[in-house]
Amino acid sequence: MSMFIAIEGLDGSGKSTQINLLIKKFEAEGKATRFVHFPRLNQGIFGELIASFLRGEYGAVNAVHPQLVALLFAEDRKQFAETIQGWLAEGCYVLVDRYVLSNIAFQCAKTKDEHEKEKLRQWINMFEYEFQAIPKPDLSFYLEVPFEFTQRALNAAREGEQRNYLKGKEDIHEKDLELQYAVRKEYEQILEMDESIVKVTCCDEHQQIKSIKEIHELILDILETKLTIKANGVF
């Protein structure tokens, strides 16, 4: 039985850490597991265009209409959709770091008018899932962390090969904390409207971040329930 899982959250929310733990867990259980991070920066024509945008080569965050930016991210997913469909057909567990909900959250966060937000939200869903016909996750997790944690994570030095797309520059999405806060608000809206996304509260009642293990166990508890439901043919 295949499973398609998306991990969502703000930049620096710990998505990569939790994905790595899930991959180890699934592989230890003998499940064929595949992973892809979206956007696929510097891969293919759309990955290269997205990397250029995030480096600020087309101007500041609001210099490009969010619908056009949404189109770039959507086309990057479309280029990889056949591979995901193949993995699922083989019975793999497929994990993605960010997917369509991320596109909605980030692009709608750049629009202040509520009517325009709703139009853009509906357009992205239609374009990605109906027009592009990409596979839809069985389940999406949103890692909710205190915004102060996001600020600290983004202000800290971030290194590694995954940062090569920046070519020594800053990511215009990451450095804009006002945008990040607006994205958080958009995810909260999505949680109210979309039952396929589940919030994982990564802090305690004192707004202290839970341990990596505690967050992992929360995800596993939710996943076990969803897998039981799927096995019974409910979704």
From TrEMBL:
Binding-site positions, ATP: 9-16
Origin: domain of life: Bacteria
Domain Thymidylate kinase-like residues, every copy: 7-201
A molecular function (GO) term: dTMP kinase activity
Keywords: ATP-binding, Kinase, Nucleotide biosynthesis, Nucleotide-binding, Transferase
GO cellular component, one term: cytoplasm
GO biological process: dTDP biosynthetic process; dTTP biosynthetic process; dUDP biosynthetic process
Reaction(s) catalysed (UniProt annotation): dTMP + ATP = dTDP + ADP
PROSITE patterns: THYMIDYLATE_KINASE
Enzyme class of the recorded protein, top EC level: transferase
E.C. number: 2.7.4.9
CDD domains linked to this entry: TMPK
General function of this protein: Phosphorylation of dTMP to form dTDP in both de novo and salvage pathways of dTTP synthesis.
NCBIfam families noted in UniProt: DTMP_kinase
Family: Belongs to the thymidylate kinase family.
HAMAP family registered for this protein in UniProt: Thymidylate_kinase (MF_00165)
Name of the protein in question: Thymidylate kinase
Natural source organism: Mucilaginibacter segetis
Gene: tmk
